[in-house]
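1st attempt posting a full record on here, be nice pls
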Amino acid sequence: QVQLVESGGGLVQSGGSLRLACATSGFSFRTYAARWYRQSPGKERELVAAITPTGGSTNYADSVKGRFTISRDNAKSTVYLQMNRLKPEDTAVYYCNTLSADGRKYWGQGTQVTVSS
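the predicted structure (as tokens):
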């Protein structure tokens, strides 16, 4: 059974930090790219950060470059998102996603991040 379980969300003041984790099971995580998306009320889901299966390459949305860092531990089948210098506009539900080379996608259930001003 495929599972993606996010954790680490919560309420933080502007300028603070949070570290999200997405623990996966039930598939070969090390062969999948991993991504973090976010969605706030009234807005479309947006791609925040992505990492290749080996972790050798990462990409970020312009809005989070220099503040967020995506990483992965294939031994633990887990992907992380370190979020620093958080802003109120970062408030959203954050979702992890994995994508195989042949197009299979899996989603987590999401974790709420709220940044107060």
